[in-house]
Amino acid sequence: MNAPGIRGWCPTAHRPMMSGDGLLVRIRPGSGRMTAAQARIVADLARRFGNGLIDLTSRAGLQIRGVTGNAHPELVRKLVAEELVDADPEIEARRNIVVAPFWIAGDLTDRLAHALALRLPELPQLPAKSGIAIDTGTAPVLRDVSADFRFERDGEGELLLRADGAARGLRIDEAGAFDALNRMAAWFVETGGGRSGRMRRHVSQAPLPGNWQLAVPADGCDVRSPGRTKDGVVVGVPFGAMSVDSFTGLLAEADPGWVQV
Question: Which CATH architecture has domain 17-93+228-260?
């Protein structure tokens, strides 16, 4: 029997993936959040350059569907101009960061997301599907979201970094968060993680350093159900797919200041 492999790659705006209805152009909003104006621009671009369908991905991205090869370059230029996509294809490809929703400007989650995004080019080259979860609210909510490196809190509320698939993690402080991530990424690469493809598979084959397995993460909790909450309107999208008209209708009804994917 062949060993399981990682198929395909994660499409980006610069490197879209062909599907049955044309190119899939993926947008990864910074910290998973767009202004309402940016969300309306995405809808307009999906109507102008795609087939009027938008996907929501499991890792806080949006996909414009049905883009033609001729339309793709102009679409990317407009996404870059609206600060929805990085102008550098290599940086954009590395922005596989999923941020727990309901963060507040200036809180730990927000600070970590900004600090890590600035230093992503310093990380070693990782497999294309590698991802980072910043799950540092009062309780983790991203346990079911694919990620390889997880920033969480322990039972005492302290920050930790946990390799996906490991039961425990390494307690760190905010100032040392990137250095800890860089060390863990380097360990992953140097111990053959590129062949495994994902951290969860790799830690079942390569033992983690002992001091990376001392901090017990806090218990997780479920994400909120659809409906109105104190933080805004939570919307569930069946199968993660909707039309531009549905998207703009939601924006008109909810009238949000921002949209969290």
Answer: Alpha-Beta Complex (3.90)
Distance CA 231, CA 253 (A): 16
B/e letters for 7-32, b = 16+ CB within 10 Å, e = fewer, are eeebbbbbebeeeeebbbbbbbbebb
Place of tokens 């549905």: 246
Asked if 25 contacts 144 with a C-beta cutoff of 8 angstroms, the reply is no
Question: Nearest-CA neighbor of 181 among 209, 149, 155?
Answer: 149
Q: How far apart are the first and last CA of the chain?
A: 39
- Give the confidence band of 4 by pLDDT, cuts at 50, 70, 90: very low
Cα dihedral 6, 8, 12, 14 sign? positive
Confidence of residue 87 (pLDDT cuts 50, 70, 90): very high
Burial (CB count <10 Å: 0-12, 13-18, 19+), residue 238: exposed
Domain ranges of the chain: 17-93+228-260, 103-212
Confidence bin at 8 (pLDDT 50/70/90):
low
pLDDT per residue over 181-210, tens digit each? 999 999 999 999 989 899 999 999 999 999
What is d(CA 217, CA 165) in angstroms, rounded to the nearest whole number? 12
